[in-house]
Amino acid sequence: MINILGIESSCDDSSVAIVGDGVNILGNVVANQEAYHKKYGGIVPEIAARKHMEHMLPVLDHCFNESGLTIDDIDAIAVTHRPGLVGSLIVGLTVAKTLAYIHQKPLIGIHHIEAHAYAACLAGLKYGTPHVALVASGGHTSLLRMSEEGRMALIGQTLDDAAGEAFDKVSKLLGFGYPGGPVIDRMAAECNHTGIEFPRPMLSSPDFNFSFSGLKTAVMYHRKKHSESSSEQIATAFQEAVVDVLVSKSLQATQKLGLNTLSVVGGVAANSALRRKFKEICDKRGLSLFIPPSRLCTDNAAMVAGLGYQKYIRNLLDPLTLGVCSHSGMILQKM
Prior knowledge:
This protein has about 325 residues and is of the alpha/beta class. It has two domains: about 5-115 and about 295-330, ATPase, nucleotide binding domain (Nucleotidyltransferase, domain 5, 2-Layer Sandwich), CATH 3.30.420; about 125-295, ATPase, nucleotide binding domain (Nucleotidyltransferase, domain 5). It is built from ten helices and eleven strands. The strands form two sheets. It has a six-stranded mixed β-sheet, sandwiched between helices. A five-stranded mixed β-sheet has the order 3-2-1-4-5, sandwiched between helices. About 50% of the residues are buried. The mean pLDDT is about 95.
């Protein structure tokens, strides 16, 4: 078995994983920083980087203990190097480079969005299957066409707020705090139909781009004008609008490209209403749907290590001079 050590530190989660042959998760440890950022209502980059420095080595030790392996059992080291918070990325990449240099292991740089797309392979999707991937998280909302070679092309993206970012902002607006996705999801599960109808931004546009900033503004105005609506009802109606847009755009893209397989990944893919609606409609249309377990939707190193395996067997390695970058770069080619 080829074992890849993965390191993920693109935002506020410090994670290390060991994955065998691209799909066998032997260890996957995540140190969450939510408690440190909660009082600020969002992620503070400097705090995130400092906490990565505190967490990374204990997480690394924990992962080796969980897997029962040692560094001698590792064939290569994969690490997220773009996109993300620069300070956070530097911590993970420095750890990866140090291990690679000391133990003479190959280094593999991983694109964070591509790693999220690979998470579907940890849920049973065969790598290289042509399909549409929806990547929805706090920092990204993108529709990708995945090719037979495992390459991805950008077919749509948010023009302003990402879906997860919109959840956080609406949650803050309604007084629920940070992070907003989980709390709104829980409220919506307990709230009956609200009778509130928010707009579905860009749903009728011919392209596959998204826009959630206006939806956030609609929530703000509704709250000011309709005091009879509870915060729970408003949050539920907001979630329904976001889910409708994400599902509809993804299915439109799948149909237009003539594909029958769809994956939904990223932190927002942990939303129970989104998962339920995708499954319901894909079942009706006979489409193959792959959504990873919730623990593999949020940032984790298993998806990094898994993708690292695919690059390792193709000899797609990187030098120790590999750097970090905050933006996506040219890997996301527009169609």
